[in-house]
Amino acid sequence: MDPRDIIKKPVLTESSYDDIANKKYTFLVDVRANKYQIRKAVEEVFGVKVKSVNTLRQQGKYKRQGRFIGKTPETKKAFVTLTKDSKTIEFFDSLAQ
User: Fold this and answer.
1) pTM higher than the cut 0.85
2) Could you tell me if residue 95 is inside a domain?
């Protein structure tokens, strides 16, 4: 799996903004990726050193539109903490205050 296929997009919420100062970043990742693959992808794409990776998996919900029933896709979030001597991720530098 290509590292750019593992990391889909950053998660930009109020709680994730607060963690940027502590070098903790949140990403939406591929559901099939494990922690080791996420660690390698972040290190390769952004050129940083990863201390730990925590993941959260959310199952899809059933939604109704009139008489039709559909299901939202399941998602997986990765909370990536960098080492203290690692540089920050440049994309998030303008967001942290």
Assistant:
1) yes
2) no
Q: Within 13 Å and on the Cβ side, how many CA atoms surround 77?
A: 12
User: Is residue 91 one of the residues assigned to a domain?
Assistant: no
In total, how many domains does the chain have?
1
Range of the domain at 33: 3-84
Task: Give the CATH number, domain containing residue 42.
Answer: 3.30.70.330
Q: What is the token pair recorded at 59?
A: 């199952």
- What is the secondary structure of 4-27 as a DSSP string? HHHEEEE---HHHHHHGGGTEEEE
Q: Mean pLDDT per segment of 10 residues, for the chain of length 97 residues?
A: 92 91 94 96 95 96 95 96 92 72
